[in-house]
Amino acid sequence: MLNRFDSCSRRLPLLCVCVLIAFSAACNRGPSQSGANAAKRYALKGKIISIDKQAGTANIDNEPIAGFMDAMVMPYTMKPADLLNQLQPGDSITADVVVGPDKYWLENVKVTAHSPATDTKPTANLHIPAPGDEVPDFKLINQNGKGISLHQYRGQTVLLTLIYTRCPFPDFCPRVSHEFAAIDSKVLADPALYGKTHLLSISFDPTHDTPKVLRTYGFSCAGRKDSALFTHWEFAAIPQTELPEFANYFALTYNEEGGLITHSLSTAIIAPDGKISKWYHGADWQASDLLQDIAAVHAAS
Questions:
Q1: Where in the chain are the domains?
Q2: Does residue 80 have a cis bond before it (omega within 30 degrees)?
């Protein structure tokens, strides 16, 4: 569905870096002219937090990389892919981060130390959402300028994801919004399910992502200009005063400097009782995965 996806990814007025990709490597997504010659390499040191063999990624808490990015917990693919089978959570590693025109991955991965699996929390001491965790009643401002809070959705299954409306990298924020659009469309066709679910796309850029901006962004992502959209799928921003606590709870890492924003991705399924049912770090999920999660929550309730 090119119209929905492209409409989300056309928001390019501000330089933005999504995940770990510097603007020069990621935001200008022109065709690669020279393959390996277009890639850049950076030395990485970090610790493996978790491994998702199905997605083929490892979440790594990397140390700051001079001239490239701050410390961050992010998902990485590896070459060769079977390297994942040789790694364990808690391993300290060195590697080369290879950044191409539209992808990034690790090569030359070496384990420098083995650590107990229990010693795998990010150095930033982020809270990692886990099933059964009570979700605080964070206050938000939605696309209509109305104050809302997470506890008001008790009794519904809430799909919550974190976005940044100016993010231009199609494989990350715009892709997440594209998948939410697919979920909203699917649920809309099922009246019974529609009333039991609610979608929240929450921006961590409250200065720019005003209600007007969020409203326009929502219409663009949904592919329709119908205010009824927001009865099921709301777009909101977390106030600046609550942002640090909110970001910590949902394991969001972000940094803004000189007009650039680096950030991770975080998506949560919140059960009708207001507790975490499932949490996804990164963008390695599809609409079908979250629809299955909804079904599982309803089957258990």
A1: 28-113, 139-300
A2: yes
